[in-house]
Specification:
219 residues, alpha/beta
Length: 219
Amino acid sequence: MDLNKLYRIRFPEARLQAKDDVWKVLCENFFQDLIRETDTVLDLGAGHAEFLSHIRAWVRIAVETNPQGRDQMPEGTRLITQPSWNLSEVGDASVNVVFASNFFEHLPDKEKLLDTLLEVHRILVPEGQLLIIQPNLAYLHGHFFDFLDHNLPLTHLSMAEALALTGFRITRMIPRFLPFTTRSRLPQAPWLVRLYLAFPPAWRILGKQMLIQARKEKA
């Protein structure tokens, strides 16, 4: 599949700016509270670097195999083009936080998911954190396959099993967190995103993606 062409169709220039505006609010009003400015952060499937561009961290590492977004990386970002299940360029216990947003559904199968989680476990420091945003099949009612590059459907329960199998302890699970896509009707404008984040009851109505925080279990 020509992902470069597909993402140009899916994310025209105007849509990319709107998506970046949403991510700026998400980072400033939610994710920054979970990440220290002294952390080394690795983003699996960094895309156009919307997360890395707005999160404050000491070291930023982007894992991205699609060439379209590589020019978007913030200055100083280390770019890795290896597949997520073989991150040999990243040292053992060298990363504080791994972030994976809308990534695991693109993996070809469950074996590659487990291999990826084992690699994440390897590169995280003891008690290092894995942050996951993931479409939750339990609430999508058939819309999961509206996107051609979606391969691996998961619910919050199957994701929890995968994490347990690979040595992670879940510290927070929100089955319904964000809407399915940044093209959802609400929220869109930055002020609406801030309002949405500040009002968790809305998550139970509009949320179609899970949020999971997990930590690497001590040996």
